[in-house]
Amino acid sequence: MTFAGLAARRIYSVICLCSLFIAAGCGGGGKTTAPSPLAVPSPTPAGGLLVTPSSATVALGLRQPFSATTNGSPSMVNWSVNGVAGGNSSVGTINTDGSYLAPANFPSPNTITVTATSQTDSTRTANATVTVVYPNDNHTMETPPIDLGTSGGNSNDSTTNGTTITCCSGTLGSLLALGGNLFILSNNHVLDKSGQGTTGDPVTQPGLVDNACKPGTVVAKLSQAAALKPTNGANGPSPSNVDAAIAEVIPGTVDAGGAILDLGAANSTGIAAAPPSATLAAPINVMANNEGVAKSGRSTGLTCSTLQSTNTNISVQYD
Questions:
Q1: Would residue 67 count as lying in a domain?
Q2: Distance between CA 173 and CA 258 in Å, rounded?
Q3: Is residue 232 included in any domain, yes or no?
């Protein structure tokens, strides 16, 4: 799991909605593609009309197919969205074949009801729930200067076995100022190929996984990495046990203010980038006050939660 990116920050105005696309990150992850909108299958009914899936998560402007059956057989139904036949531009539209199209602008509330009504018996209806979310922009190609919390990684992190190419990506996490220079802070397994990289290796955006295993724009050069602890203590203990590395920014390629994708204010079509809070919060106070924290990363998009512990031992196994 890629954990780069994102220093916890106090959340005041950010709308915390999980983004749509979920894909494998680095650390041995191969070339991946974004899956279809998340959908939950419907339970098998004892009888009567059923809409499948019973719930789905759909990004703005994307489609989600629904089907209607009665005791397992296709049913002739009329479709509506929030009680409007065929839906509308505010809540999304649905075709006669059950294909739902999410609205272009974020609805409020963002939970929508899709209803199928039998064409032969209007008393027979079945519903499905749609949660409309913002699209995931963390895995896409950016125009420099790029925001952080985005897809990236060591452009040499790929292997070829016959006709199969395996490549890795992760999150370009946050901006670090050190000795008058700017660096990207991320994981060792993202920037340093799990300890197999070389100082000066190019770091590109987007990462190989999100660019057909081809290098994107070079935004930094690998500078330094914390050594990963060997598996089962092989070859003795390492100097550190932190999965972290830094890469010196190529001037003009990264937002100098340290903006991170989706940490800013929400609008009708997306969430603005913003730097982390300039005020360093005390974790124990954040937890005591039940304040929100956020992470924006290549694989998960924007995720929001609360702190549960400030002193926890976690073991991560690297093969």
A1: yes
A2: 10
A3: yes
Each residue of 261-279: pLDDT tens digit?
999 999 999 999 999 888 8
| Contacts with 280 (C-beta within 8 Å, 6 or more apart), sequence order | none
Is the peptide bond preceding residue 135 cis, with omega within 30 degrees of 0? no
Residue 84: closest CA among 121, 40, 117, 50: 117
Residue 179's domain spans which residues? Answer: 152-249
pLDDT > 80? residue 15: no
Reported as type and span, the H/E element at residue 283 is helix 283-288
Retrieve residue 256's tokens: 């100098």
Q: At 98, is the pLDDT very low, low, confident or very high (cuts 50, 70, 90)?
A: very high
What confidence tens digit (pLDDT) does each residue in 283-315 have? 899 999 999 889 999 988 998 999 988 888 877
Among candidate residues 226, 249, 272, the one where a domain is terminated = 249
Q: With b meaning 16 or more CB within 10 Å and e meaning fewer, what string describes 290-310? A: ebbbbbbbbbbbbbeeebeee
Q: Which residue has the higher pLDDT, 33 or 161?
A: 161
Report the relative pairing of strands 55-59 and 125-133 from DSSP bridges.
parallel
Type of residue at 244: A
DSSP 8-state class, residue 82: T
* 165 and 107 together in one domain: no
pLDDT: which is higher, 33 or 310: 310
User: Chain-centre distance of CA 229, in angstroms?
Assistant: 28
Of the residues 249, 275, 295, the one at which a domain ends: 249
Q: Looking at the structure, do residues 107 and 76 belong to the same domain, yes or no?
A: yes
DSSP letter string over 250-281? PTTSB-TT--BTT-S-B-SS-B--BPPPSSPP
Q: What are phi and psi of 79, to 5 degrees?
A: -105, 145
Instruction: Report CA 154 to chain centroid distance, whole Å.
Output: 19
**Residues 210 and 183 grouped into a single domain:** yes
* 79 in the same domain as 43: yes
